[in-house]
Amino acid sequence: MMREKPRCIYFNYPVWYMFAWDHLRAGFRTFRIDRIVDACLVEQPFKVKAFEAFSHLIETDTPITL
């Protein structure tokens, strides 16, 4: 089971992305939302931060498929 901590959700036409902290890889990663095949709801709340807080990291990342 992968565990991600979402930090930013953004739209890069025509795809939505989630920029998140990946606990398994101990680093930030970009996930294509349309390719997430299994997700579960957790009770733990999180605060989505502004795109500008992560834009410099997102520019150098490559989206992955879950």
From TrEMBL:
What domain of life is recorded for the organism?
Bacteria
Which Pfam families does its entry note? WYL
Source organism per entry reads Pseudoalteromonas caenipelagi
* Classification via InterPro entries: WYL_dom (IPR026881)
Q: What is this protein called?
A: WYL domain-containing protein
Name all WYL domain ranges: 6-39
